């Protein structure tokens, strides 16, 4: 078994498929990723809210909130939030022109939310309460 898979098993982000479920449904033959889909939805909702709000200096809040909401679903949601955040920052870092410091700050907010930190730490004054 690869070191990556062992690491995921250790932190509870993946689990082995129970013997009684093998051969039923669609999944990797090695593991299930519990609640990752819901975590991805949380990330999408935070991104959609950020676009809708179009509020200056609110992006770190939405980064933290999406990661926080996804992580509340458990290890699968936390895993989805990390994968999506890392992919987005990797992509953005190469083309946005915002630079390494913005990416570092985004990743700080992502990690804060994923670790259970209150997203309101990054909430800008005056952001409408619906967010």
UniProtKB/TrEMBL annotation:
Region Disordered: start-end pairs: 91-131
PROSITE patterns: SAA
Pfam families: SAA (PF00277)
Gene3D superfamilies assigned to the protein according to its UniProt record, in alphabetical order: Serum amyloid A protein
Biological-process GO terms, alphabetical: acute-phase response
Gene Ontology CC terms: high-density lipoprotein particle
The organism's place on the tree of life at top rank: Eukaryota
Keyword vocabulary terms for this entry: Acute phase, HDL
Entry's family note: Belongs to the SAA family.
Biological role: Major acute phase reactant. Apolipoprotein of the HDL complex.
Record-given protein name: Serum amyloid A protein
Organism of derivation: Chelonoidis abingdonii
Taxonomy of the source species: Eukaryota, Metazoa, Chordata, Craniata, Vertebrata
